[in-house]
Every structure is written in structure tokens, then in C-alpha cells.
Design a protein that fits this description.
The protein is of the alpha/beta class. It folds into 3 domains: 3-132, Immunoglobulins (Immunoglobulin-like, Sandwich), CATH 2.60.40.10; 166-331, no CATH class; 335-418, Muramoyl-pentapeptide Carboxypeptidase, domain 1, CATH 1.10.101. The chain has 10 helices and 18 strands. Strands 3-2-5-6-8 form a 5-stranded mixed beta sheet, with no helix packed on it. The chain has a 4-stranded mixed beta sheet with strand order 4-1-7-13. A 3-stranded mixed beta sheet has the order 11-10-12. The longest helix is centred in the middle third of the chain and has 20 residues, at 208-227.
């Protein structure tokens, strides 16, 4: 049974005969400056019956709707590779806000027991923007990856490589195979790109170690493309494609999931290495059900190993060999300065604290839930409360400690809200 045949049989989530639910939230921001859009009207309907209305919501001062429950299939559908039933329900999302384009998203995917987050970016009135989300790669029919060497030769005359591994601020995604000159290119923030791909290629209901292992493989593959300037060396102007035959499946306009988003934040500057190899490893994989790939990671196989209690690195070594290890990029592009190397917490002092305080104050001018603080280079109770408020606002553990994920999220949001002109 094809995806589309099954979809037609599953028009209404209410007909599933299940009490399973997933949570859903819409997050509306401006295209330029990453400003929250309050008072946007959000209408949610069944994909199979777009004229119906499941919920009508309004965004708050942070540009977010309340968390709501939406019906979803039983969780076993996304945990058992033998299941052929669609493991997620499908909803349409319409967003309107005064002075901005209206947005239509067709096919937001709701999994049970996790939170689906629908990012919506609006621009000044130009017309309606529509996104039709294709099926998840573990459920739909996609071409398998064309095998490549995991380490790219870089000694050819004229070959361009970066001097070191750099986490880019943006990647340029070509939304189609490399040869399709009619496909559009899109600038995507690196971490947003990784969250989108992981949400498109694995199920957010899987074990945490499995999710992390797959994210590390996705990031290492992506950073190999960045480091080797793979497509630029072939005359293209993009970083990576959305074709599963060549790269990963990126779906413009799709929702992401909280479990995946949090995992990316924890490891976003990491990649996979082998001894005496400078470039990130091109970590290829397949689903392990419809396609087999000896020597590569299989997604369903990684899920089974996570069920057995294996850690992310144990899962990765099971597939890629014992010489694979997790490395960290020292340079993160587009941020004022790199991670200071130790957590900032109450009692910390110095320039790193001062810089972080300045950035929080700039963010607080846009995201008013974050209070302003004295810029004195001293991490006191006031700064701790501001950090907690920031963490709560942006989905990080609200412990008041500026660890690596919090440092880079503060830096990233600061750059987004203070940027004078976004890339076109």
C-alpha cells in the first residue's frame, strides 16, 4: 500500500480508535530580525478535510501558541519496523498576521508522546506562502543513497578545502538533485537545518541515544560537505542538496520535534572522526528495512541498539567500527566569540560573563520575558534569573547555568535579533 493510498484511508485522526496524543505548538517569527509575531491567528485542520477546524489559536508576546493536544496513532507504529501503518497524523496549519503574508502548511506530522513545533517565518505582505510537506523518509518512497567514499581525497590540483572544521552559520540547501537547475536554493541556519533533517529521517519517539547517534551522523556528513567544499568544487553554488540519493532529506516548512531539537542543541558543534583524518567523516546510512547498506548505520538498527541501552557512541561504533570517535569543532561561524571552555554560573566573573550579559540585554529588547541585567562581568542572582528566563523561552533546561548549548543559543539569538540585513 502506497503512502498516498494509506493517507486517503486515514483522513481523520479521530477515526483511528486511539487515545494517543502528541503536543503541538506554532512559533511565528519575522523573516528579518527574528522578531516574535504576537496576535497571529492560527487555524488547525485535518489534512484530509482542510475546511474543518480542529483548533483556532492566537500567538502570545513570544509569537507562540499555547501547547495543545492533537490525536496521533499508537506509539507502536513508530517503534516497530514491521508496522506498515502511517505512524503520525497529518494536520494543516494556516497562519495570518496583520501586515504579513499568510502561511499555509499542508501535512504537519504529529507523533504521539512528543511535542511537534511548527516554525513559521513571515515576511511583509507579498502573497500567500504554501508548503506541502512530503512523507517522512521512513514511511515514504525515496531513492537510496548513492555510495561514496567516507573520506574525500583533497589532493587534486585546484581542490578547495577549508583550513579547519568550521560549524557554519548557514548552509545553502539546493532543494532537489544537484543537476536540477530549476530547483531553488535556500539559506538555512545550520542548527535549524540539522533539526529539520533529523525530524524528516528518524522518529522523535525513539530512544535518546538513538536520536543522538543519528544526529551526529547527519552533522558529520553535513560538515564533510562544508569542509571539502564538495559542491562548490563541482561548479555549484550550494552547500548540500535535499536529495536522498546524494545527501539528506530536508523538507522546507516542516515541523520539528522537541526531543530532536534538544539533542541537536546538546551536540551541535560535534562531528565524527577517525584517527589521523582531519575532515569530518562522511557518515552514510540507510533505513535498514527497505534498503540494506553493509558497513553503514541503519536507522532501524540504531533504534534496536538504543532499546538495548547502548550509548550514542556505542551505536555508532557498532556500525562504523571501533576507530570512530566524537570530535568538536573549535570554530563556530557567525557568533561573536567561541565557548569559553567552562560553564558560567553564579560566582563566575570576567569578559565572557560581560559579553553574555550584553547579549541577554539585546535579546530582552525583543523577547521581553528575558529581564535586563547589569553589565558588570559578575554572574550574580540577577544574571542567573535572566539565563533561566532565556532557557525557558528557547526550550533549554532552565538551570541558570551557561553551558555550551546555552552559550551558543544566546549567541545565535543575539546575532539573529541584531542582524541589520538577512541574507537574501
Amino acid at each position: 500500500m502506497s503512502y498516498y493510498d494509506y493517507k486517503q484511508q486515514r483522513i481523520y485522526p479521530a477515526q483511528m480508535g486511539t487515545e494517543s496524543f502528541g503536543k503541538f505548538q506554532v512559533n511565528v517569527t519575522t523573516e528579518q530580525g527574528f522578531r516574535p509575531v504576537p496576535n497571529a491567528k492560527v487555524r488547525i485542520s485535518y489534512t484530509g478535510e482542510p475546511d474543518s477546524t480542529v483548533e483556532e489559536l492566537t500567538t502570545d508576546d513570544l509569537g507562540r501558541t499555547p501547547l495543545i493536544d492533537l490525536q496521533a496513532p499508537p506509539i507502536d507504529y513508530s517503534l516497530d519496523p514491521a508496522q506498515e501503518a502511517q505512524p503520525y497524523s497529518l494536520y494543516n496549519v494556516n497562519v495570518t498576521a496583520e501586515g504579513f503574508d499568510s502561511i499555509d502548511v499542508n501535512g504537519a506530522e504529529i507523533l504521539p508522546d512528543v511535542t511537534a513545533i511548527q516554525p513559521i517565518t513571515v515576511r511583509p505582505l507579498q502573497g500567500t506562502q504554501r508548503y506541502v510537506i512530503p512523507p517522512h523518509t521512513l514511511f515514504g518512497d525515496y531513492p537510496p543513497k548513492i555510495a561514496e567514499a567516507e573520506i574525500k581525497p583533497t589532493s587534486e590540483s585546484g581542490e578547495i578545502v577549508l583550513p579547519g572544521v568550521v560549524v557554519p552559520e548557514f548552509v545553502i540547501v539546493h532543494d532537489g538533485p544537484p543537476s536540477d537547475s530549476s530547483a531553488s536554493n535556500y539559506y538555512e541556519r545550520y542548527s535549524d537545518y540539522i533539526k529539520n533533517v533529523a525530524s524528516s529521517e528518524i522518529y522523535a519517539t525513539w530512544p535518546a541515544s538513538t536520536i543522538t547517534a543519528n544526529i551526529l551522523a547527519i552533522m558529520s556528513f553535513t560538515l564533510n560537505r562544508v569542509y571539502t567544499e564538495w559542491y562548490r568544487n563541482r561548479g555549484y553554488t550550494f552547500t548540500i542538496t535535499s536529495s536522498t540519493a546524494f545527501d539528506h532529506k530536508w523538507m522546507r516548512g516542516r515541523n520539528i520535534y522537541d526531543t530532536i531539537s534538544q539533542a541537536v542543541d546538546q551536540v551541535f558543534n560535534n562531528y565524527l572522526s577517525r584517527p589521523n583524518v582531519k575532515q569530518p567523516i562522511l557518515t552514510q546510512y540507510c533505513d535498514g528495512r527497505n534498503v540494506t547498506c553493509p558497513g553503514w548505520m541503519t536507522q532501524w538498527g540504531s533504534k534496536a541498539l538504543g532499546d538495548q541501552g547502548m550509548t550514542a557512541i556505542q551505536i555508532l561504533r557498532n556500525f562504523y567500527g571501533s576507530s570512530i570517535y566524537i570530535n568538536s569543532a573549535n570554530q563556530v561561524s557567525g557568533v561573536p566569540s567561541s565557548w569559553p571552555g567552562a560553564n558560567l554560573t553564579v560566582g563566575s566573573r570576567g569578559d565572557s560573563v560581560r559579553q553574555m550579559q550584553e547579549q541577554l540585554n539585546a535579546i530582552s529588547q525583543v523577547y521581553t520575558a528575558v529581564p535586563t541585567v547589569a553589565v558588570d562581568g559578575v554572574f550574580g542572582a540577577q544574571t542567573e534569573e535572566a539565563v533561566k528566563a532565556f532557557q525557558q523561552t528557547f526550550g533549554l533546561p532552565a538551570n541558570g547555568i551557561v553551558d555550551l548549548p546555552t552559550w551558543y543559543r544566546i549567541s545565535g539569538i543575539y546575532v539573529a535579533v541584531t542582524r541589520i540585513a538577512e541574507l537574501n
